[in-house]
């Protein structure tokens, strides 16, 4: 056996080897429902296996509509005691299991979601595509753009109308389901609780000037960099160059990796406290954008789609992350997502871990990996998801976590390398369902059949072999006589 083919056998590989065509025909479901706060007792656990049929799992609110659901007659029904659980449907058709889209809209705490990883469920890297809705803790982000400069196969951009249409279709903006924060969003490790952690360079003395001067670079020139008055300041702090303001309107030293491209998260002036507008009009009538410039590819863009009480997580805030600077400097590390100010994408919210997840880039594709977060990294399921054979899929809906695994039932004919299926009495049926004539005896059993089969395969010794055996016996007899 060559070194390339010398792979360690495992139960999964052995099951796949002895399972014929490998198309799943059984579904193993394990579930656990968390107990609500203050309730006594253990967590509710259940297990169910079905064969060649779909499954519908109902919470108390949806149990009444179990018979009225389309296709419910062809599915096994499971009822769980989870008041928050919506209906979850798994369909079986064309020798494949498919998890159907969520029947509940997405919000900070609702919707059927695939668990990409938590501190208890360690997941690997998951490919990210445009249109994915990712939930970090309770913060929901929509992937609106992937730009690899033509290197990757999944480059795409959602237009503003497509984003609005998708949000209206799958995202719930009910005020009752909005995530309400009970305190200030702070980074526990770094103690960063201030809203504005950057301070603009100011002159200690206010000077009266007859001409407009940028209070950052103290330059009067306006060649391709006009002077503007974006806030309510007066005197020497009234004017600033457009490019100088854009540099201060980004994430400081990390502006080459992450930038905010939305007016809803505009910075405020540290002197007059007036928010900077997203655009301004020059005296000649030209309109200029005050938002920071777009980053170079490869880059990925997220948009907040969940409502929060935090002032740093306004609805529709967009974040653009770029790998360009890391690649140019030959830095091999993922982009970090978390609550810490040291992360590349900072989500200052209590349900987000200090270091929550990692964003990897390889061969023109972006991948997402959970970093052992407390509240998990999840992906909302609003498109049909095919379940692969012998691969577990972890799903969260309501307070219930499911482990779903399609398998192939092992059949003995595959083990013995012969075609057909075993009859109930142990004899073999051919592909047409006809029993062999030599196995019609009542005393025929699988064990006797195998004994007769292997006995018939034994070859009768030839005459040459008999002569050699006779000569060997004669030689042994002569040696015994010499010893005497």
TrEMBL record:
Domain of life (superkingdom): Eukaryota
FHA domain span: 335-378
InterPro entries with a match to the protein in the record: FHA_dom (IPR000253), SMAD_FHA_dom_sf (IPR008984), Znf_RING-CH (IPR011016), Znf_RING/FYVE/PHD (IPR013083)
Gene Ontology molecular function: any one: zinc ion binding
Segments forming domain RING-CH-type: 206-279
Keywords of the record: Metal-binding, Zinc, Zinc-finger
Ranges of Acidic residues composition bias in the record: 182-191
Compositional bias ranges of the Low complexity kind: 457-478
Renumbered residue ranges of the record's region Disordered: 181-205, 425-484
SMART domains, per the entry: FHA, RINGv
PANTHER family cross-referenced by the UniProt entry: FHA DOMAIN-CONTAINING PROTEIN
Official protein name in the record: FHA domain-containing protein
